[in-house]
């Protein structure tokens, strides 16, 4: 439980509840839960990684009082770091690619961080947001510290020491399947490593959007993708240190239409507004529950506040421009999830 009296925002990070999704649990005959990470003060699971990375850097002396934290991010990590920085009296500079939701840009500004928007370019381009953040820190070593969430294993360690133990305690050791997307891989890595140390038979499934190469890498050993996705900050086309720690048994790649159909169904049936990454998590969890058969218990992550996807996932004009149908037949999706997916 979160503390009744908190001394700062940092005390509110973590200790999030599990929430059953009634409609999908009933249809599958299994219990499907989401861990409500949108209840963190910054509204996302990235608050955990932010606190872990900053705490370790301060302890080691790599990050010193008066310095500026700099990070390249699709948004949520930037918000989390801005909150942690403000609580600790540090400055924050966020480098973000253009084209992310306006909701995230506004949150970063509200928490007093400096926002630098850069063109969305391929990773190999040195103007990519990741390289830009690293370059700023390298050029200003005495005043800037680069969080480097993809390669910084404090990210993984935070989920190993907090997220995994919380889930194990909440489900009282009774869990069959864990499902998670991967952005940096810190969540799926730390949580799967801890839970498999307690539950060796646990099945861990990576949820991957089209446009990402992680699922193909898991199955075939090479990064290859098709299409693109409305999800933000999810899926990568390279092996990073945090994801390398993940204990994954299978990977599933789903298209955006599945995300849209599932999100609108859960909203209409249960009154739960899912963000795009969460909708992908839940879609894969639902599919896994149907394939596993009734009587199972599954946990996945409600990664962030659903309204952060409002301008895309729940915006009819945006969806129409992307040729996505919010009124698509859920029954057809339900039937398709009971059949094997074609090989990637």
Describe this structure in words.
With 344 residues, the chain is α/β, with parallel strands linked by helices. It has helices spanning 22-28, 46-60, 76-87, 102-110, 129-139, 154-170, 186-198, 214-220, 256-270, 276-292, 316-321, 330-336; strands spanning 18-20, 31-36, 68-72, 91-97, 114-118, 144-146, 177-180, 203-209, 250-254, 297-302. The strands form two sheets. A six-stranded mixed sheet has the order 1-2-10-7-8-9, with helices on both faces. Helix 2 (46-60) packs across helix 6 (154-170), helix 6 packs across helix 7 (186-198) and helix 9 crosses helix 10. The mean pLDDT is 95.
Concise structural overview:
It is built from twelve helices and ten strands. By secondary structure, it is of the alpha/beta class.
Which structural traits does this protein have?
10 strands, single chain, 12 helices, 344 residues, alpha/beta, 6-stranded mixed sheet, 4-stranded parallel sheet
